[in-house]
Amino acid sequence: MKYSLELEVASSKEWIDAVLSDFDAFLQDHADCERKASAMAMSFVAKCPDKTEIIPELIETAVEELEHFQQVYKLMEDRGVSLKAEMPKDEYIHALINECRSDRDERLIDRFLVASIVECRGAERFKLVADNVKDEKLKKFYKELWTSEAKHGNIFVKMMLNYFDEDKVYSRLKELNAAEGRIISELKIRPALH
Q1: Among 71, 31, 37, which residue's Cα sits nearest to residue 156?
Q2: How many domains is the chain partitioned into structurally?
Q3: Domain-located, residue 6
Q4: pLDDT in tens, 85-121
Q5: Is 156 exposed, middle or buried (0-12, 13-18, 19+ CB in 10 A)?
Q6: What is the C-alpha to C-alpha distance for residues 126 and 138, in angstroms, rounded to an integer?
Q7: CATH (domain of 70)
Q8: Would you say residue 191 lies in a domain?
């Protein structure tokens, strides 16, 4: 069963053109995103120690994201690209987090649903990269990532369905998905995942 929603707004041709025109910068940003995704999954473990049904899957997700970082870093090494000295603030993530409500349970739902949407956006963009990059090694790598990220887009919604009413979860997911479409449309296009 698919738990996530389709994204409201597709990524533009301008976005993939920007990525392909400076792929090394895209790799640097991608590496940062994988590190942050791993840390986010572990932060959910820290915030939800009582939600034992989802902790094993959160740990598995954190490890998988860290493995993705390792794989991206290897690609960077092969190309002579170093990590950025500092991870800049991700305006996309920041804008999505600003959409989250402040009540404890509502914020928990929102953070997990935002994680789902971010993973769905990553899957969509990794597919675009796989479909458009010429290098066969990169094409294969991004095709594999696309399927992994699509799976992650489902698991965060599924986790919340363990604890909250389906109508409540999906109505909020729809609202956040609409907000994400607005946010992604307003972002400056650059060779970055978001």
Answers
A1: 37
A2: 1
A3: no
A4: 998 889 999 999 999 999 999 999 999 999 999 999 9
A5: buried
A6: 10
A7: 1.20.1260.10
A8: no
Q: Which domain holds residue 51?
A: 13-186
pLDDT confidence of 1, banded at 50, 70, 90? Answer: low
Tokens 């069963």 appear where?
Answer: 1
Name the one residue in this structure whose structure tokens are 């010429």. Answer: 134
Q: How many helices (H) and strands (E) does the chain have?
A: 7, 0
Q: Which are the contacts of 83, defined by CB distance < 8 A and separation ≥ 6?
A: 28, 31, 32, 73, 76
Residues 6+ apart with CB under 8 A from 9: 180, 181, 182, 184, 185
Check: CB of residue 173 under 8 Å from CB of residue 154. no
Do the domain assignments include residue 141?
yes
Residue (of 153, 92, 96, 128) closest to 20 by Cα position: 128
Read off the pTM.
0.95
Instruction: Give the contacts of 53 (CB within 8 A, at least 6 positions apart).
Output: 162
Please report whether residue 3 resides in a domain: no
Q: Tokens 């609409």 belong to which residue?
A: 178
Q: Smallest Cα–Cα separation from 191: which of 5, 7, 10, 18?
A: 18
